[in-house]
Each structure stands twice: as C-alpha cells, then as structure tokens.
Amino acid sequence: MKLTMLYSFLKADIEEIEKELSKAIDSETALLKNASLHLLQAGGKRIRPVFVLLSAKTGHYDIHRVKNAAVALELIHMASLVHDDVIDNSEMRRGRTTIQAEWNNQVAMYTGDYMFARALNYMTVIEDATAHRILSDAIVELCLGEIAQIEDKYRFNQSIKDYFRRIKRKTALLIAVSCQLGAVAGEASAEAQRRLYRFGYYVGMAYQITDDILDFTGTEKELGKPAGGDLLQGNITLPVFFAMEDRELGHRIRKIHEDMPKEDLQDIIDLILKTDAIKRSSVISQRYLVKALEQLDELPPSRAKKSLRDIAIFIGKRKY
C-alpha cells in the first residue's frame, strides 16, 4: 500500500499545501526560484505537513489556519536538506542532483536561508506566541544537531548516547513539533498536544533509525542517493555501532575515510549485512514505534487517529 492511501481523505488539503509551497518559494529572482523549485519538484513524503494536518484534526480543524504551520514545517525540513547537502558535499537527493551540485554552494546556502525565512513568514500568520516559541526552540535544536553531526564525523569512539542525542535533534524533534503545532493550530486540548508531541518524537526516532538501516539495505534507485553514503561520509549510525562490536570488523570500519574506493566500502557494507546489526537496529526502531502507538491510546477514536497509527506502522515497514 502507498503511504498516501493512509490519509487519502486529506487529498484536497494536501494539494492545497503543495500549491502553497510553490507560492512560498516563488521569487522575482529567477535563480532563487529555480533553485528552490529544483528541490520542491523532486517530491518527498511530506510527512511533516501530513502530521500537522492530522494532529489539527484532534481539535478545531481549519485548513486556512493550519496550512500555515504545515507549509512552515515542510520549508524548514527542505532548508535543512539543502544545508545538509552542502555540508556532506552530496550530489544526489531524491533521485535528482542537489542544488549545490546543480549550481554551487553559495546558491545552495542562500536558497536554504530563503526557505527558512519564508517558513517564519508563514508561522507569523498564526498569532500565538506559544507556537512561535515551539518552532524557534526546534530550529535551535536542529542547528545544534547539525553541528554535532559535523563534529562527530569519523569519530568512531563516540558513545551510542551521542547517536541518539543527534538523531533526536536532527530528525525526531521536528516531527514531534509538527504534531504539536498541528494540535496547537487546531486548538486541541493541552493533553492532546502533549501526547501528539510525544507520538511525533517516538515516530521520529523510529523514522531516523529506519533511514539509517536503509542506508545499508536499500538500493540507489530506492534511496534516490548512493547506498552506504552515510558511512562513507563518516556518519556513525546505529547499525555501525552494533557492527563495531565485532572486533575485526570494527577495526576495518575505523579505517573508513571519505576517499575510500567504492569497492572497499562495499566490502565493509557486505560484512555489516552479515552481522546482526540490522536486526538489532530494527528491534530498537520497533520499540520506539510501540511507545508512539501507546501515546495515541488515550486520544478519542477518529479517522485522523487511525491515520496517525497507520502511518507509524508504515514507517516501521518502509523500504524507501
């Protein structure tokens, strides 16, 4: 089943969000407009806006108010990807060349900044200081996570706690805030806002761990970027932590560097796949998903609640 089938009743509103995203990144400057469209038209799962809309359904849903939070969250996510690609010197994203590869680093950095700024424009439409504080705190944490990732590259003696703290900041908090801000924009109860935040946090942790697993098990066609790219860039993910428990394999992993020949890297990936690292990582991802689903148990039955549950389960099983 396709992910979009799990929230098909939101089809008209998702189309509204897509139109608003195009409008948001429009610019009289052709270079800025083309660079922004380059990423937007590459697609994406739009998980964050979907979570905003579904969470808002637990309160008083008004698409004209809620869409501002949904667009802001997706723009912040897109901006972080653009900056990520500069830091990692990545050439492919979602099956297309990255902005920095298509143009250059300067264009990419300002395009990312532009998306961040446009996100703030949209959030100001929601006249709620609490919503603004939630979003600004999340952006601060996102930046801290990005810096931590730079500092942790090829640092093979880092602790597994460093990894969990990093993915919390880089991925989980923005998904948690997507759910929370949806509930805030929909004026849902304080209890619903807390539970949806925690739901998003646990789903976000599971989502990133699954992403890190797919970096080893997925193909370039499925991922839209080269498999094993995270490891080559020195990002120590959960499967790598488990694989390094094998003394001999750990010794080989610690010798990885950015100029390593592709064949040598593939040999190491093949060895990691022969360990129980992927299975153990999946178990931890599933534990986070169980915690996420528990948060939904106390919310009243609704079509939105069912979709949130179905999406969480889908994330645990996804292959791309």
Automatic annotation (TrEMBL):
UniProt superkingdom: Bacteria
Keyword DNA-binding: no
Gene3D superfamilies, per the entry: Farnesyl Diphosphate Synthase
The entry's keywords: Magnesium, Metal-binding, Transferase
MF-aspect GO terms: heptaprenyl diphosphate synthase activity; metal ion binding
Keyword set includes Transmembrane helix: no
Function: Supplies heptaprenyl diphosphate, the precursor for the side chain of the isoprenoid quinone menaquinone-7 (MQ-7).
NCBIfam families, per database record: GerC3_HepT
Protein name per the record: Heptaprenyl diphosphate synthase component 2
Record organism: Jeotgalibacillus malaysiensis
Classification of source organism: Bacteria, Bacillati, Bacillota, Bacilli, Bacillales
